[in-house]
Design brief:
single chain; about 220 residues; alpha/beta; Rossmann fold; eight-stranded mixed sheet; two-stranded antiparallel sheet; about 25% strand; globular; binds ligand PMT; ligase; decarboxylase; Coenzyme A biosynthesis bifunctional protein CoaBC; flavoprotein; lyase
Length: about 220
C-alpha cells in the first residue's frame, strides 16, 4: 500500500520458539517457525516503524530494515526485551516462549543407561507478564496459543498480563498457528470485545494487527 502510518513508532516484536538446553547437544523447544513474528516485523518496517526483532532460532531471513537481536533461551529473550522496553512504543509478543527449562544444563553430553531418566524442570519468567506489570506508555500485544477453550483461556491471559490486545489462535485448526503460512485468529480487547477474523496469510494478518494497534493508539477501536 505504501502508507507509512507507523512512522514515529518504535516497535519490538518477538518471534520463534526458545530453546532450553539439556546438555551441549540437546534442548527442549516447540513448533514455532517464527513466521508470524517475522511477518509482523516485515510489515511494521514497511509502514515506517523502527523495528527491533528479538528472535529465537528460525530458518527465516531477516526482513529489510529490521534490527534483529538473536537469542536462544527464554532467559536471554527476557533480558533482551527488558533492555529495549523503556524505549519502545509497542510490543508484540509472537514468540513461543518455553514455560519451563531444565533445572540444570549438563556440561557434557548425557550418557544413556539401561534405566529411564527423569528430567527436572523449573519455571521460566513470564516475559509478557513482567511487561504488563511495568507498563507505562507502551501498548502491549500478546498472543495466545490454545488447544482448548480458546476464548476462555485467552480472556484470562489478557487480564492477567495487562494487555491492550490479544491475538488468540486455536493451534489445532488446519492452517492456524505453528509452522503454516496462514493463521486463523480471534482478536480480544480488555473490555471483553472479541473479533473473529477469517483464515489469512500471516502477512495479511500482520497488517490487520498493525491497523488495530494504530486505532488503539488513536483512542479508537
Ligand atoms: O512461529 P509460527 O510458526 O509462525 O507460529 C506462530 C505462533 C503459533 C507461535 C504464534 O501465532 C503464537 O501464538 N505465539 C504465542 C505462543 C505462546 O507462547 O503462547 P502462550 O499462550 O503460551 O503464551 C501467551 C503469551 O505470553 C505469548 O504472547 C507469549 O509470547 C508470552 N509468554 C509466554 C511464556 C513466557 N514465559 N513468556 C512470555 O512472554
Amino acid at each position: 500500500t505504501g502508507k507509512k502510518d507507523l512512522a514515529q513508532n518504535t516497535v519490538l516484536v518477538t518471534a520463534g520458539g526458545t530453546r532450553e538446553p539439556i546438555d551441549p547437544v540437546r534442548y527442549i523447544s516447540n513448533r514455532s517457525s517464527g513466521k508470524m513474528g517475522y511477518a509482523l516485523a516485515e510489515t511494521a518496517a514497511k509502514r515506517g516503524a523502527k523495528v527491533y526483532l528479538v528472535s529465537a532460532p528460525t530458518s527465516l531471513a531477516v526482513p529489510a530494515g529490521v534490527h534483529v537481536i538473536n537469542v536462544e533461551t527464554a532467559e536471554q529473550m527476557y533480558r533482551a526485551v527488558m533492555e529495549l522496553y523503556p524505549g519502545v512504543d509497542v510490543v508484540v509478543k509472537a514468540a513461543a516462549v518455553a514455560d519451563y527449562r531444565p533445572r540444570v544444563t549438563a556440561a557434557q553430553k548425557i550418557k544413556k543407561n539401561d534405566a529411564g531418566m527423569v528430567l527436572e524442570l523449573e519455571k521460566n519468567t513470564d516475559i509478557l507478564m513482567e511487561l504488563g506489570k511495568r507498563k507505562k506508555h507502551q501498548l502491549l500485544v500478546g498472543f495466545a496459543a490454545e488447544t482448548e477453550d480458546l476464548i476462555k483461556n485467552a480472556r484470562e491471559k489478557i487480564s492477567k498480563k495487562n494487555l491492550d490486545l490479544l491475538v488468540a489462535n486455536d493451534v489445532t485448526r488446519p492452517g492456524a498457528g505453528f509452522g503454516s503460512d496462514t493463521n486463523l485468529v480471534h482478536i480480544l480487547y480488555p473490555d471483553g470485545k472479541v473479533e473473529k477474523l477469517p483464515l489469512m496469510d500471516k502477512l495479511a494478518l500482520s497488517e490487520v494487527i498493525w491497523d488495530k494497534v494504530i486505532r488503539l493508539k488513536e483512542g479508537k477501536k
